[in-house]
């Protein structure tokens, strides 16, 4: 009895090992996966934040800079987190002459905080700190920096902190990113896989002999993938609002959210489909998609502000449609910002989508080879 | 003299059978019918020295090897060959799914490499594998292909119902194809290929895996479509199918065209007479030699315990043949006499049966086959 069981167990074992070894691509991907987790996740999550843009401005009157303001601005701009002073400095300080202008730049996301210094060193005159509280990490870093600089200068002024978007919890910060993740999942299992399944099952042999153009195939699949992704993204958006307790400020914000989700769906779906147009086996495609999902989600800024990432990872963010999607959604949902702020994200997404659709059409194999 | 040798072979320098086909000749017999060149415009497909080579790290396979022939407008043309002979590759090249490695082919005067778009508009293809979307209904599947083939929206619904009726599937129009039997799926795919009334219909192994009744229904359907003046090109490895349907038949073996003619003319390739099949207990080489020298006997093939003898007059020859077996004390188990079938012609031309594996793996004699020249 026992040898029989053993014999078949060994047969199963041998068969599985042979199948495993027959596909070097999958072996490579399984090894690459944990390494990528280490490199990407490790760098994207715990990175040291540097170069946080901060505006400083002095209350008027007086109309000339006080010694407190000059020294504080200088010192804030030279807080270093390592031996290499310039590359690893914490804050990039911009000096404003007009408080209104500084606050406007803060509201438009150009800077992360505004520090308003009073005319003199005293107990009564507070240093006012306005922070972009939609960012989960930078406000406390800026506050710490201002406190230590004031102490170093011997100024005993109290600090008042104004979180311009109120108290935003991490789950609210993170929740926006999950919408992008839903879009990616829906589209990788929808659009991309549909194309590969047709190819793998030989169904495409039926329609490739018709006068259909490859642009029609690619655009048609991107369109259907976009609809699926939109349904997923929209559903997760509502669930996100319910779970994290965010309240949208206006109906216009709601429409903008729909617009951003839709354009992000086009961007992500065209990326996935143009990827899929080169693959002919589901297994290989899926291992690549898991990998792609990791890279795009990690570098999207969903978990942690992208300013904390090393340069090479930030370079990936600039070609990552999820980054622009997350950024635009946060601007609307958490900061109540409008088209003037998210316009650049939408343009980036549209350029990206167009490039990917062209790439998908060009690389799609019209023949069976 | 070749086995089953042609007594009035029109080409004097015919290589001895069963040598495997050599590099350049189309037919080992140099049959003039193989390379018909007509200039009267009756041909709808013209293939000239077409070759297709698949290269991989492990090996190079010549799937189609210097094939030239023509298909006439309105005929049912059969491509016959064993599995792996190159039939599907040839069909895929003609339907623009694969590019040839060398050579040219014209479909309705369009060059397959320069003008694939025009060809796709005038052909209908039913691939060997099922390519319907199983989750969708029969109607949806036909509608999808109708739209890809630019059938006008105004006539499409009526056309779909017409085709479904033709296929006997009208009552199942709105059922998912996943619930269909193999025969129903096949019939659906054949009418699907016909939705835009193509000039040419390609059917790759249309009855593979179907039961006898489903096969007969598919045959009827094919004949019905041919009546609408459609040229039909079908590949098959079933002799009866080719015999029943095809006006002209091309034998393909190991990527090469080895014969092309009407059934009637192909029959003439085998010397007139009957085939005598005798099962015996064992064979004695001396007995075999003696049978060969008999007057009415043209050729002898021995495969294990079966002897196949081609004789000018079977019923007369049998007496002297049995005399030889008696002389050598070889017990005879069974005897049958019949006229040659398409399969016999195929075996005669290729040296092997149709169901015997792929062309690239077996030698010309076929597995277990043993051929002896006189």
Chain-wise SSE layout:
The complex is a heterodimer of chains A (369) and B (374).
Chain A: H1 2-21, H2 24-45, E1 52-58, H3 67-76, E2 91-96, H4 99-107, E3 113-117, E4 127-131, H5 138-152, E5 159-163, H6 170-200, H7 204-208, H8 214-244, H9 251-276, H10 282-298, H11 311-318, H12 321-333, H13 339-363
Parallel strand pairs in A: 1-2, 1-3, 4-5
Antiparallel strand pairs in A: 3-4
Helix pairs in contact in A: 2-10, 6-8, 6-9, 6-10, 6-12, 8-9, 8-13, 9-12, 9-13, 12-13
Chain B: E1 43-55, E2 60-72, E3 76-80, H1 87-94, E4 102-107, E5 110-111, H2 116-122, E6 123-126, H3 138-148, H4 156-166, H5 182-193, E7 200-204, H6 212-227, E8 231-236, H7 239-245, E9 248-253, E10 256-262, H8 263-269, E11 274-280, H9 285-292, E12 297-303, E13 306-311, H10 314-327, E14 332-338, H11 342-350
Parallel strand pairs in B: 3-8, 3-9, 6-7, 7-8
Antiparallel strand pairs in B: 1-2, 1-4, 4-5, 9-10, 11-13, 11-14, 12-13
Provide the low-confidence segments of chain A as ranges.
none
Estimate the global geometry of chain B from the Cα principal axes. Answer: elongated
Measured by DSSP, the beta-strand proportion of chain A falls in 5-15%
The overall strand count of chain A is 5
Task: Give the N-to-C terminal Cα separation of chain B.
Answer: 7 Å
Structural class of chain B: alpha/beta
Strand portion of chain B = 25-35%
Poorly predicted ranges of chain B (pLDDT <50, ≥5 residues)? 1-39, 356-374
The strands making up the biggest β-sheet of chain B line up spatially as 6-7-8-3-9-10
